[in-house]
Design a protein that fits this description.
By secondary structure, this protein is α+β, with helices and mostly antiparallel strands. The chain has one domain (about 5-145): Aminopeptidase, CATH 3.40.630.30. About 30% of the residues lie in helices and about 35% in strands. A seven-stranded mixed beta sheet has the order 1-2-3-4-5-7-6. It is globular.
């Protein structure tokens, strides 16, 4: 089956929240913004990327990348805040597509590294390690070469 990765639209958010289930907070917690409202705002912000994967117009997965400055990292750090995969799809392929696009997006936004919460499932953790992520305590991380870093002339 062929999957398509694209930037999320505001109309994708409710499906993404439903797919994410217990991975996200904010629902009914009395916070100013619930998860869906926060994601709707992130769709339009330049320091975040929300990606979705579809197969035949059916939602197969999605991910959220947030960018923050870091003095310790020497630039910007991308954080994969959420990655959700539908239960009836090829998890390896959808994870691969999302991670590849997230790494590209983070590099294009000038990130020097990218991090994510370490998956509990060893199979899922192995998928991330295949993409260059290494164990860094409670997180996994990957060093990036920002887009254009190797092409600058001095």
């Amino acid at each position: 089956m062929e999957y398509t990765v694209r930037a999320a639209r505001i109309t994708d958010i409710d499906r993404f929240v439903a797919l994410s289930g217990d991975q996200i907070g904010g629902r009914g917690s009395g916070t100013a913004l619930d998860a869906a409202d926060m994601l709707r705002q992130l769709v339009y912000l330049p320091h975040a990327s929300i990606l979705v994967v579809e197969r035949r117009r059916e939602f197969a997965g999605g991910a959220v990348l947030a960018i923050r400055p870091s003095v310790r990292a020497g630039g910007y750090v991308g954080t994969i805040d959420l990655l959700a995969i539908a239960p009836d799809v090829d998890a390896d392929e959808v994870t691969e597509l999302l991670l590849t696009e997230l790494l590209r997006s983070a590099a294009n936004k000038g990130c020097s590294s990218i991090e994510a919460r370490r998956p509990d499932d060893p199979i899922e953790r192995a998928r991330w390690e295949e993409r260059g992520f290494i164990d860094r305590g409670p997180h996994m991380g990957c060093t990036l070469a920002p887009a254009g870093a190797g092409t600058r002339s001095r």
